[in-house]
Amino acid sequence: MTPLDRPAAPVNISVNHLRAHSAMVSWNVLEGEAVIGFAISQQRQDGLTQRFIREVNTTSRACVLWDLNENTDYIIQVQSIGLHGESQASKRVHFRTLEKADHFQSIMAQGDPSVEGLDISRRLQTGEMLIIMTVLLLWAAVIALFCRQYDIIKDNDSNNHSKDKTKPLSVYSTPDYHSGSLTGSKRTVSSVSIIKV
């Protein structure tokens, strides 16, 4: 196996979608290279940890680095894997992960990374927040209107019941049963006169 059988080193290495504990590395390969995979060397700049990632039988030109330490400097190099071996390592690329506070600010400032195969929770954009707020306000208005209508109906119902209770008894009873009424005394007199005859 000669060096000519190996693919050329990847080019245009870039690190984007930086987070507190992750980052995405992407690269290009030269046109016409028979590349079947990649290998990534990742290490902290202080030399405390080092990791190797190797993938074969893939045409991917990007890889997400997980379990990074926040606010930490890293160095990466990428190699192409061909049918007859690996390429030379690419140029060293330095990057620094975000702090958690910076991570949340970057979430608000930019959209999600569209990384295939990643289960990253979707964040609400400004337009979606406006729609949600509008719907909530409409619901609040409908509920307030319903409560007001319910109070009006309840007040009307209680007023009708109180009017029924205060109606004079003459509506429900005949004058014959009113004590001390004029008609009642006349009948008493007439009945007495009948007894005398």
Overview in brief:
This protein is an alpha+beta fold and 197 residues long. Helix content is 34%, strand content 25%.
How would you characterize the overall build of this protein?
This protein is an alpha+beta fold. It folds into two domains: 3-123, Immunoglobulins (Immunoglobulin-like), CATH 2.60.40; 125-166. It has three helices and eight strands; from the N terminus they run E-E-E-E-E-E-E-E-H-H-H. It starts with 10 loop residues before the first strand and ends with a helix.
Name the descriptors:
single chain; 197 residues; alpha+beta; Immunoglobulin-like; 2 domains; five-stranded antiparallel sheet; three-stranded antiparallel sheet; 3 helices; 25% strand
List the helices and strands and how they pair.
Elements: E1 11-16, E2 23-28, E3 35-44, E4 50-56, E5 62-65, E6 73-82, E7 85-86, E8 93-96, H1 100-109, H2 126-166, H3 182-196
Antiparallel strand pairs: 1-2, 2-5, 3-4, 3-6, 6-7, 6-8
Transmembrane segments: 129-147
InterPro entries: FN3_dom (IPR003961), FN3_sf (IPR036116), FNDC_type_III_4/5 (IPR052120), Ig-like_fold (IPR013783)
Protein name: Fibronectin type-III domain-containing protein
Which class of secondary structure composition applies to the elements?
Answer: alpha+beta
The CATH class label of the largest domain is Mainly Beta
CATH fourth-tier homologous superfamily of the largest domain: Immunoglobulins
DSSP strand count: 8
What is the CA-CA span between the terminal residues?
153 Å
- Coarse shape: elongated
CATH architecture group name of the largest domain: Sandwich
Fraction of residues in H or I helices: 25-40%
Q: What are the segments in which pLDDT stays under 50 over at least 5 consecutive residues? A: 112-123, 177-194
Order of helices and strands: EEEEEEEEHHH
User: What count of domains describes the coordinates?
Assistant: 2
Strand content: 15-25%
Rg, rounded, reads 44 Å
Number of DSSP helices?
3
CATH topology of the largest domain: Immunoglobulin-like
Protein name: Fibronectin type-III domain-containing protein
Subcellular location: Membrane; Secreted
Domain Fibronectin type-III: 9-100
Pfam family, one: fn3
